[in-house]
Design goal:
This protein has helices at 15-39, 46-74, 78-82, 91-110, 112-118, 128-138, 146-166, 173-180, 183-214, 216-237, 252-269. The protein is mainly alpha-helical.
Length: 275
């Protein structure tokens, strides 16, 4: 899970970047302390162990929140990132989601076959999985770099979710696209995408350092715990989201909806109560 030496974060050296890095290191230290606590659990009274474990878990969560918050600050701040104006974090994620949602709306309006024909494609010899991947590919305008890599990883996560929603019958694709564009489902997919997107940025930018300082096993455990916490925070925060109803997902309304939802997710993941 290391960061390539060929791709350094464009905000490396920014003061908040150092704070984000330190917060990830503190998260790993808390995970390490949790392992030691578990090893010693048989020698401790149950109540004492439960209290100590709760403190460790709180350290893991608070430090992961600080890591996200400082990483976002280093990339230009929550508003800049959420509006897709930061090349470090945000631009590729917001751009792909906007294109993807617009293409799904086009398919709902025109029908899958007509939409594919416009792009010189057909359903011949294609599974639903192939078609979903094709829509994702047509939606891409990646330029390379860490932000693109994070967006691609998040894209793969959404593709897997869509496979379960749409099913495996190509002749029912048009009918099932309505399920995808249901307002609550779209909010769910956006939230899942942005949660995975932010997690991938943490992995790409900081896992190599943790591997070098703490070893690969603890690094993998640390980022697995961070991932679980992120996706749980996303899940818990889902009901607080605004589910857009009748909007043009291809126009300014669609982009505004995406950026507002991204802003909300960033606020949750950084535990930032400020508007």
């Amino acid at each position: 899970m290391g960061t390539s030496h060929r791709h350094k974060a464009s905000v490396f050296g920014e003061p908040n970047w150092g704070k984000a890095s330190q917060s990830v290191t503190s998260t790993a230290k808390a995970v390490e302390d949790g392992n030691k606590l578990e090893e010693n659990s048989s020698n401790m009274p149950q109540k004492q162990y439960i209290k100590a474990l709760s403190r460790v878990n709180n350290r893991v969560k608070s430090n992961y929140h600080r890591a996200v918050g400082n990483m976002v600050k280093a990339a230009g701040g929550r508003s800049t990132v959420a509006n897709g104006k930061s090349y470090a974090i945000g631009r590729s994620g917001v751009s792909w989601l906007g294109n993807f949602a617009g293409n799904l709306q086009d398919i709902q309006t025109k029908g899958l076959s007509n939409w594919l024909t416009e792009h010189n494609k057909t359903t011949d010899n294609k599974t639903c999985k192939d078609i979903i991947k094709l829509i994702a590919q047509i939606s891409s305008d990646y330029m390379g770099g860490l932000d693109d890599t994070a967006a691609r990883k998040a894209e793969m996560h959404v593709i897997e979710l869509l496979e379960n929603i749409i099913g495996d019958k190509v002749d029912e694709f048009d009918k099932n696209i309505d399920k995808v564009l249901d307002p609550k489902m779209m909010t769910y997919l956006l939230d899942q995408y942005f949660g995975m997107y932010i997690f991938q940025h943490l992995v790409q930018n900081f896992s190599e350092k943790i591997t070098k300082s703490k070893g690969e096993e603890l690094s993998n455990q640390t980022f697995a715990e961070i991932k679980d916490l992120i996706m749980e925070d996303v899940r818990v925060g889902f009901n607080d989201g605004v589910h857009a109803t009748e909007i043009d997902r291809k126009g300014p309304q669609g982009r505004e909806y995406i950026t507002k939802e991204f802003n909300r997710i960033l606020r949750i993941l950084s535990a930032d109560d400020n508007d």
